[in-house]
Design goal:
The structure holds two protein chains of two kinds. Chain A folds into two domains: about 45 residues; about 100 residues, no CATH class. Chain A contains five helices and no strands. In chain A, helix 4 runs antiparallel to helix 5. Chain B has a single domain, classed as Orthogonal Bundle (Arc Repressor Mutant, subunit A). Chain B contains four helices and five strands, in the order H-E-H-H-E-E-H-E-E. In chain B, the strands form two sheets. Chain B has a three-stranded antiparallel beta sheet. In chain B, helix 1 packs across helix 4. Chain B starts with 8 loop residues before the first helix and ends in an 8-residue tail after the last strand. Classes of the chains: A mainly alpha, B alpha+beta. The interface between A and B is medium-sized, with 17 and 17 residues.
Chain lengths: ~150, ~100
């Protein structure tokens, strides 16, 4: 379909043709990928029963819950640790220190947990991965909007 | 197979464009100009019709070193299907009839 561009007279029409063709290919490949994935899942684990879907959802939810717990512990607990350990020190000169408990430590824990759990508890690992991605996206959006 | 095809007005437009010269090979851009459909709408329809063996496809090599151009033509089944679902108006204009449309 992109070969047709050579035969289109106007540049703008060519551009719209290319964008339309690209979106068609993208939609086609996404649909194919999802349908292949669903077929693979069906072949691997038999029918998609309510029980199996519930089990997957429970695994995913437990992964998200673990991530939220880790993040809460890190933000509420570890963030206060330096001041508790070194009360005399002024930490306002180290602005990067604030990122450790809210981003670096939780993301590191998430990454290690995902690698460790991926082969045996994939659903929980997926939940942790999802939370890690959500946290990273949140931080990126926060930094770009608030500077 | 063909009965499962979703016959949207756009799909009927494409079939109608093929019926103008049913034995001729057509390029995607020519069909787009005849029907007014954009590439993002046209190509999924062409792919669906080809998947259901209502269209046959071919590659035309125009110049060596350049990628070939895709061509489309109705198969005998496609011709029958198109004639069954697209009817022509008597006063020169083409009228699309949604006869026996199945989703």
């Amino acid at each position: 379909m992109l070969r047709e561009i050579d035969f289109i007279e106007s540049d703008w029409v060519s551009l719209w043709w290319a964008l339309g063709g690209t979106s068609a290919m993208l939609r086609h490949s996404i649909t194919n990928t999802i349908s292949n994935w669903l077929t693979r899942q069906r072949d691997r684990g038999g029918e998609w029963t309510l029980k199996s879907v519930g089990k997957k959802a429970a695994g995913l939810t437990s992964g998200i819950a673990i991530s939220v717990a880790v993040l809460a512990f890190s933000v509420l607990g570890l963030a206060r640790l330096p001041r508790a350990l070194f009360p005399a020190r002024n930490f306002s000169q180290l602005p990067w220190l604030g990122w450790l408990p809210v981003l670096v430590i939780p993301e590191t824990v998430f990454a290690i947990a995902v690698v460790a759990l991926w082969s045996k508890r994939r659903n929980a690992a997926s939940g942790i991965l999802l939370s890690g991605v959500a946290l990273a996206v949140h931080v990126i959006v926060h930094v770009t909007t608030h500077g | 197979m063909a009965s499962r095809l979703r016959l949207s007005p756009q799909t009927l437009q494409v079939l109608d464009a093929f019926l103008e010269a049913p034995r001729d090979w057509k390029y995607g851009y020519d069909i787009s100009r005849n029907t007014g459909l954009k590439s993002g709408t046209l190509y999924p329809i062409l792919m669906r019709l080809a998947d259901r063996k209502l269209l046959e496809t071919s590659w035309e090599t125009v110049e060596p070193g350049k990628p070939p151009r895709h061509l489309y033509r109705l198969t005998p089944d496609g011709l029958r299907f198109a004639r069954e679902h697209v009817t022509h108006g008597v006063a020169g204009s083409r009228v699309l009839a949604l006869r026996g449309v199945k989703s």
